[in-house]
Design brief:
The chain is mainly beta and 79 residues long. It contains one helix and five strands, in the order H-E-E-E-E-E. The protein has a three-stranded parallel β-sheet with strand order 3-4-5, with no helix packed on it. The protein has a two-stranded antiparallel sheet with strand order 1-2. It is elongated. The mean pLDDT is 84.
Length: 79
Amino acid sequence: GGGTSFQAVVDYVEGRTEVNGRRFEERPDAVVVLTDGHAPHVTPAEPDKWIWLITEGGDDWPDAHNPPMACHRVFTGEK
C-alpha cells in the first residue's frame, strides 16, 4: 500500500541521520534495496550506487528513474 519510506534509507546513506548525536560517517560503495517498489519515489545524491531488486508485480518507477539506477526483477514464484 505504499507504506515503505526509502527516504529514511537515503538520509542514512547520505549522512543526514544521527545516532546518539553522531552522524553516520561511512560512505557505502553500493546500496542494495529489495522491495516491491510501491513507495514514494526518491532521488539519491549518488543514484549510480543504488541497486534495486524489485519483486514480481512491483512498481517500475526505479526502472524509469532519471538519472538511471540499476534495477533487477526478483522472481519469487508468486503471481
